[in-house]
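Hey,
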Amino acid sequence: MKSRPLTLVQDDLVEYDKAMARMAEMVEQRQRDERPDTLWLLSHPQVYTVGRRTPHDHLPDPAHHIPVVETTRGGQLTYHGPGQLVGYLIVKLGAGEGVVDYIREVEFRLIDALGRLGVQAERRDTPPGAELLTGVWTSATGRKIVSIGMRQSRGVTSHGFAVNVDGDLEPWQWAVACGLPEVDMTSVRRESGAGTMELVRSVVAGAFEAAL
C-alpha cells in the first residue's frame, strides 16, 4: 500500500447536519487545492443515516425517537452514536484511481489499526447479486465492526468510515444495518474487553498516516 499522509482534524461530538455542512466545505477546498488530503475524526449524537436505496422496511421503529437522515454517501442504513469513532476522508484521488479503489485501501488501513488494538479483522468480497459487504469484519467471531460509505465528486472523496469503539450496540438491532438483516454489529470493547476512544482515535490516525 502506497504512503498517503493526511492532515488530521479532530472534534468530539458534532451534530450530523453541521458535520455534513463542514465536510462539504472541506471537499470544495480540496477540489480547489486550498486544503491538503484530510482525515476528520469525530463522533455524532444518535442518528440513523440512510442511502438512497434503503428500503422502507429497513428503517427503525420511530418509537425509539432517534432521527433518520438521508445522506449522499453510498451504502444503506447505518447508525451513529456516542462511543463510535467516525472518520471523514477528504482525499484527492490519483490518476486512474476510483472511489472503490480507495475504499479497499480504507478497509486495509482499518484492519491494520484493529490488529494493533488486539482485534483480528478482515474484509469480505461481495458475491454476485448479493448486498455489498463493504466494511471490516472480525475474523474470530464474524461480526461487523466497521461500516464504510463513501462517494467522490470531481475527483475528491467524502464521507468515510465508522468504527464501533465502546458505545451502546442495541440501536443497531432496531433497524436493518447495511442492508443485511442477519448482521451482528460489534465493537472494539465487545471483542477485546478493552479499548478507549482516546486509544482507538490515536491508533486509527496512525494507520492513516494522519497528523495534526
